[in-house]
Write a structure and sequence with these properties.
The protein has about 140 residues and is of the alpha+beta class. It has four helices and seven strands, in the order E-E-E-H-E-H-E-H-E-H-E. The strands form two sheets. It has a four-stranded mixed sheet with strand order 4-5-7-6, covered by helices on one side. Helix 2 links the parallel strand 4 and strand 5. The protein is globular. The N and C termini lie far apart (about 35 Å).
Length: about 140
């Protein structure tokens, strides 16, 4: 509605589903999503999901996301890297080693970019960060 896209609301047992032309938005428990409910997923854009999870829950998130996708599914993963002791998350720092540990068993990983973005993040500077990098990866489900 905020962007002028009219949507119809449908209520399921575990989700409110908002539907518009070529768009479905599921509001509910991520871990209750199933491949049957979603259908084939050709691509995923993870801009803030992985970095929102505490370290103890990241593996479960990646495992479930992997179960929802098929071989060939492309994911554009955007992470943030900073000295975790400078700021409590979220967002949490997720470095290349952790991306590799979490995704390498079921994905081909290609690093696309890593940029210093601290100057653009006044809110995070105010929380104490002295350095901040945004990293982008292309993940291909095996």
């Amino acid at each position: 509605m905020e962007h002028g896209v009219p949507a119809k609301r449908r209520i399921l047992a575990d989700f409110d589903v908002y539907e518009a032309t070529r768009l479905q938005l599921f509001r509910g428990d991520f871990f209750a999503l199933t491949p049957e409910l979603l259908g084939p997923i050709p691509a995923v854009y993870d801009r803030a999901a992985l970095i929102s999870w505490v370290p103890e829950l990241r593996a479960a998130y990646v495992k479930h996301m992997t179960a929802l996708t098929n071989p060939g599914t492309q994911t554009l993963l955007v992470t943030m890297e900073y000295a975790q002791e400078e700021m409590k998350g979220p967002p949490f720092s997720v470095g290349a080693d952790e991306v590799d540990r979490l995704y390498a068993p079921n994905h081909e990983i290609r690093a696309l970019s890593r940029q210093d973005v601290l100057a653009n993040e006044a809110r995070l500077r105010a929380r104490g960060l002295t350095q901040l990098h945004e990293a982008c990866y292309r993940l291909t489900r095996l």
